[in-house]
Amino acid sequence: MNARPKKSFGQHFLHDRRYLDRIVASIAPKDGDTVVEIGPGEGAMTIPLLAAARRMTAIELDTDLIPGLQARAADVGELRIVHSDVLKVDFTALARELGAERLRIAGNLPYYISSPILFHCVEHAAAIQDMHFMLQKEVVDRMAAEPGSKVYGRLSVMLQLACKVTPLFTVPPGAFRPPPKVDSAVVRLVPLPPEQLPKGDAANIYKVVKAAFAMRRKTLSNTLKGLVDEATIRDLGIDPRARAETLPPGDFVKLANAI
Description:
It is an enzyme of class 2 (transferase). This protein has eleven helices and nine strands. By secondary structure, the protein is of the alpha/beta class.
């Protein structure tokens, strides 16, 4: 029996087998991979992932969905269900608990809290091999945007400083039940190796990026006033009259290190 999607959880269940197959093929799980799915819903993606990996963990907040998931998984493999808000899950601790060097995370994320979930996962990037998420296409466009793009912003910079972001394909509203009012897209995030991560204080990087994009039409000398002065910005080889949307991610690290 199909579950009734709940607006309070932002549920849109993916049911189109063509797109489910493409997602699973993109993840390409293997026996022995430590797969963790966020928001498995009715298990449409869970079951093929479990069939390949043989064991996996699913994080589900909606208690009404858990019995159905357990029943569908019973003859497929070993499914461990964690009943929790994903924002409260410590992925680093979960990896240790599962005896995994790194996790492979996947999920059709609730669109209304997708950014907090992304940032939460990035905080645990050292314990994650890769991530494959279904998101609102507009969010995926922002995640992968390059400097100079109208949608390049705080999300673009912070994610690209931590991960390689690769949009994979678009999914139309009709592939879901109920259909969302927007197009969706699948994206792959692969955490960068330690040598490619920014060298600097994470709190200062966040502070600079947030301030720089707070007023997109203003120049860096205005938005960073009180953090980095105009002369210092110029000494870093950055034009103080430039706007944040023109700077590559690495320049924000330089600015943060100048605080």
